[in-house]
Amino acid sequence: xxGILSKFAIRxxxxxxxxxxxxxxxxxxxxxxxxxxxxxxxxxxxxxxxYESLGPEGLDLFTEKSGVKVDLVVTTSxxxxxxxxxxxxxxxxxxxxxxxFYKSQGFMEFPFARDAxxxxxxxxxxxxxxxxxxxxxxxxxxxGNWKQVGGEDLPILVFAPSGDSxxxxxxxxxxxxxxxxxPDVTTAKSTFAADVARRYKNGISFVNLGAAHGRPEGSRxxxxxxxxxxAAGYPFVQAFSLVTKGEPKGAVQKFVEFVSSKxxxxxxxxxxxxxxxx
Length: 278
Description:
Helix content is 42%, strand content 23%. The protein has 278 residues and is an alpha/beta fold. The termini are far apart.
């Protein structure tokens, strides 16, 4: 009997080895087939001027600190809110105040920054300071030559963003106060008008300070009533907000909390020239 068992063990060990290897390989395949946990991602629709104020570094800083990736679409403020309404994004960044209609539908607004609207000209232009009524006259074209405001004898070339942008709406409301903007050239992207205007000696446009900050040399910001954009009492300042559809949760809540954090506020102020709302 002992001999029979011994022979059976000798003959059976290759089979046991094969079975053991199969089990091991099957287990390894099961582990390999188990997908890695996907990183958290939020879908952000942002106005062009807010994105350029935050800079890509701002979003990278959030991802670095939270581990949450940002899937970004840059558009107008109105379109960003529309994407949020239709479920095409998780959070919108808007440079316009949230309309009461959306508030009644449960949308929530989180102001996080204040950014000045600035007048941009070519650095060769001798005009250093303008009064609000002069700005109105220039962009309405009732003032058509730089010599009328202390500059050279050159026709003024007005560049403006498209009328559906928050930058245009805010400038129209705060600066023009009902006076019509009459541009010579209109650009589709809101912040592009200032980029083009600075290339012309007689050009002028407007943009937000955060977008102008860090631009390549070749433009100058005009003072208003003797005040620089970062000075107390500067008259043209707009607010930036995040908007969510309902109470923010999960990764979206992390993003809302991050843009209100001291670390991010310091980044905005020191790196981008934008002031926090607090």
